[in-house]
Design brief:
Layout: E1 5-11, H1 15-26, E2 31-34, E3 73-74, E4 77-78, E5 90-94, E6 99-103, H2 125-128, H3 134-149, H4 156-159, H5 166-177, E7 182-184, H6 191-199, H7 226-232, E8 236-239, E9 242-249, E10 255-262, E11 268-281, H8 284-297, E12 318-323, E13 340-344, H9 345-348, E14 350-355, E15 365-372, E16 380-383, E17 388-391, H10 399-416, E18 419-420, E19 435-436, E20 461-463, H11 478-496
Parallel strand pairs: 1-2, 1-11, 2-8, 6-19, 11-20
Antiparallel strand pairs: 3-4, 5-6, 7-13, 9-10, 10-11, 12-15, 12-18, 13-14, 14-15, 16-17
The structure holds flavin-adenine dinucleotide.
Pathway: Steroid metabolism; cholesterol degradation
Family: Belongs to the GMC oxidoreductase family.
Organism: Actinomadura alba
């Protein structure tokens, strides 16, 4: 409520924010979470909370009048379509050189992601978070994060025979015939439920292609894990469709937080001001960076240091498809939750997730999202002319990612006598190099903050999301974001509260 005071205000309800809220509440502290997206707890006109991937509607996109599908074309034809403007679940946020996909709503990215719950290889951790003690992470915080997230593994005997992972078995065959390690990865989708989907005994979610616009069943999003636990403490309140616009020092070491309440058309219906003893920035790499860059540049938080907005990377994301021979079908039924990847990180700087193309028809295509070693880092900056925050990333900066992905797929194509698909991202375009699903950085740990996420210059302000991570996690990022948040909040509760 306008004028209220709260002990702790958390901006955003993704991984970092949910960990903070739960652990603070368990320590006896009242927490208020502010989330710009919707609650996603009520069914739409079709009786379902979330829209299907192949049939997008207003629920699918954040305030757009046309879809912006990551795979924009099929057989060369554009597949985007008009939709009503609505506070939908997936934001395709366009910067000049890259489109950054993010989840919007209570649960953040956990609502829209592929659920791949991957802990980086221990030997790579030094490049992921150089200032963090690896023994503590692998001994305590990664296990705590995996437990909190409800991570599980696919039953390999079932995986070997089910129609819905034929595409993944084809991916394995091609990887292994070219000598690449093929590794299974855990997921937060309940694989026992998926078995029942395949058997036809429960409503379908992963086997109905649900992923990008939410899963109606069996994906353990944060709503079902950390946030459910946090709410059960009775100490956590959440305000959806509320967007934080400013944080500034107030009397008594407190902070004044300005918040716009919005409707489902995105219009501001009320402006509120609250005070908080402590504020956690958990608006995601882009959301937190945009807020901090603006607040530093406009003088609201003058003590922030020169590292704010820097060190942003795309986790080296690049997509591609390969055209298989007609005797090598990938299956018309494809589980939307990936289970495995091709690991050429050490030799070639690429970890390629064998991804589904859940179109419902046989495409003879293998599709991959590669996470690559890309050294390029961008910065956010305040544009006083437009009143917006810009990002300096350039499309050409994806070239190292393309080169890394080619270390895998050029070899597989040569071995199999196959070619790249050129019809998925435009006309005669091989690489999906215009986007990322994995924004990281902008308020890097031990640079913009101290080694536990305390922002320099303003005691009581913390960063606790993907913006702490300097641009690359070598694998999919949410387990690392969660584990780092577990580490930092434990320290903060012990020493600051
Ligand atoms: P987020 O989860 O992004 O949460 C931030 C929240 O803050 C959002 O809900 C946002 O609406 C809210 N917010 C932002 N600004 C404000 C504001 N000013 N006021 C109020 N609220 C605000 N990762 C994996 O590890 N495995 C995968 O399989 C995987 N697949 C993915 C697939 C897709 C399509 C996408 C988009 C992402 C995927 N990711 C995956 C990435 C993963 O989801 C993100 O890395 C993760 O969600 C980031 O967590 P976070 O806590 O930093 O922020």
């Amino acid at each position: 409520e306008n004028g209220a005071h709260v002990p702790v205000l958390v901006i955003g309800t993704g991984y970092g924010g949910s960990v903070a809220a739960l652990r603070l509440a368990q320590a006896g502290i009242d927490v208020h979470m502010i989330e710009m997206g919707m609650a996603w707890d009520a069914p739409g006109a079709d009786g379902k909370i979330f829209a299907n991937t192949t049939n997008p509607d207003g629920r699918s996109y954040w305030l757009r009048t046309k879809t912006e599908q990551p795979l924009s074309n099929f057989l060369g034809f554009p597949i985007d379509r008009d939709i009503p403007r609505y506070t939908g679940i997936l934001d395709a946020e366009n910067f000049s050189g890259i489109t950054v996909y993010q989840g919007r709503g209570v649960g953040g990215g956990s609502l829209v992601n592929g659920g791949m719950a991957v802990t980086p290889k221990r030997e790579n951790f030094g490049t992921v978070l150089p200032s963090v003690n690896a023994d503590e992470m692998y001994g305590t915080y990664y296990p705590r994060a995996n437990a909190g997230l409800g991570v599980n593994n696919v039953d390999l005997a079932w995986w070997e025979t089910t129609d819905c992972y034929q595409y993944a078995r084809v991916g394995r065959k091609h990887a292994q015939r070219s000598g690449f390690p093929f590794v299974f990865v855990p997921n937060v989708y309940d694989f026992e439920y998926m078995k029942r989907e395949a058997a036809g005994t429960v409503p379908k979610s992963s086997l109905a292609g649900e992923i990008l616009y939410g899963n109606n069943f069996a994906k353990k999003s944060l709503q079902k894990t950390y946030i459910a636990q946090a709410k059960a403490t009775g100490r956590v309140a959440i305000s959806p469709l509320h967007k934080v616009t400013s944080v500034a020092p107030a009397a008594g070491g407190r902070y004044t937080v300005a918040i716009d309440q919005i409707n489902t058309s995105g219009d501001t219906t009320a402006t509120k001001t609250v005070t908080a003893d402590r504020v956690f920035f958990a608006a995601g790499s882009v959301g937190t960076s945009k807020l901090l860059v603006k607040l530093k540049a406009t003088g609201a938080l003058p003590g922030l240091n020169a590292e704010i907005g820097k060190g942003w990377g795309d986790n080296g994301n690049v997509m591609c498809g390969r055209a298989n021979h007609l005797w090598d079908p990938t299956g018309s039924l494809q589980a939307s939750m990936p289970t495995a990847g091709i690991d050429n990180w050490t030799a070639g700087g690429a970890f390629a997730e064998v991804a589904p193309l859940p179109t419902g028809i046989e495409t003879f295509a293998s599709f991959y999202l590669s996470i690559t070693r890309n050294p390029n880092r961008a910065a956010f900056s305040w544009n006083a002319g437009t009143g917006k925050v810009d990002l300096s990333w350039q499309t050409a900066w994806k070239q190292p990612s393309i080169n890394a992905a080619k270390t895998i797929f050029d070899k597989i194509n040569a071995k199999e006598g196959t070619i790249y698909r050129t019809d998925l991202f435009g006309v005669y375009k091989i690489w999906g190099d215009h986007l990322t699903y994995h924004p990281l950085g902008g308020a890097v740990l031990n640079k913009a903050t101290d080694n536990h996420g305390r922002l320099h210059g303003h005691p009581g302000l913390y960063v606790i999301d993907g913006s702490l991570i300097p641009g690359n996690t070598t694998v999919n990022p949410f387990v690392t974001i969660t584990a780092l948040a577990e580490r930092n909040i434990e320290k903060i509760i012990a020493t600051d509260l």
